[in-house]
Design a protein that fits this description.
The chain has a single domain, classed as Immunoglobulins (Immunoglobulin-like). Strand 9 and strand 10 form a beta hairpin. It is elongated. It has one helix and eleven strands; from the N terminus they run H-E-E-E-E-E-E-E-E-E-E-E. The protein is mainly β. Strands 2, 5, 6, 9, 10 and 11 form a six-stranded mixed beta sheet that branches. Strands 1-3-8 form a three-stranded antiparallel beta sheet, with no helix packed on it. A two-stranded antiparallel sheet has the order 4-7. Helix content is about 15%, strand content about 40%.
Length: about 150
């Protein structure tokens, strides 16, 4: 490939990249990557499950996850009947601005949480970032199995 063709190809690819980014309804949140760590994945009733939500901002602008006074990374549990629970529901948070509510360009934020299941069954656990004036971005679900205590 000669230099002139390569230069034209670079311009076309660059323009398509900009057009694609402008059409993205998620805006900067499209560059947000979420991971969830759950430990252990099999527990007895009453045991503590350790959760760690990790958010990485690959965009060039800060993502505002300060929808409420709660940490910017949230946790949701769905039971075997399909009922979803926000683990922050009913908790009182004071309202200083938290680091996890402003996910800056290139930054990785981690929020750790504990959950104690109270019934036998299989649960799907997700982490999520609720972007202010935008969508809720959710991680892939991690499975937790709760077995009876003998």
């Amino acid at each position: 490939m000669n230099v002139r063709v390569a230069a034209r190809l670079g311009v076309v690819v660059g323009v398509l990249g900009v057009v694609g980014a402008c059409d993205d309804p998620l805006g900067p949140a499209a560059e947000l990557s979420l991971l969830l760590s759950v430990s252990p994945d099999i527990v007895l009733i009453g045991d503590t499950v350790e959760l760690a939500g990790v958010a990485y901002n690959g965009a060039d602008t800060t993502i505002d996850a300060g929808v409420s006074c709660a940490p910017g990374i949230r946790f949701f549990v769905t039971d075997s009947a399909g009922v979803e629970t926000d683990l922050y529901d009913g908790l009182g948070f004071i309202c200083p601005r938290l680091d996890s509510q402003d996910i800056e360009p290139g930054e990785t934020d981690v929020v750790q949480w504990r959950w104690v299941p109270n019934a036998v069954g299989r649960y799907a656990v997700r982490s999520a970032v609720m972007v202010k004036d935008g969508p809720t971005i959710r991680s892939r679900a991690s499975q937790v199995e709760v077995v009876p205590r003998w």
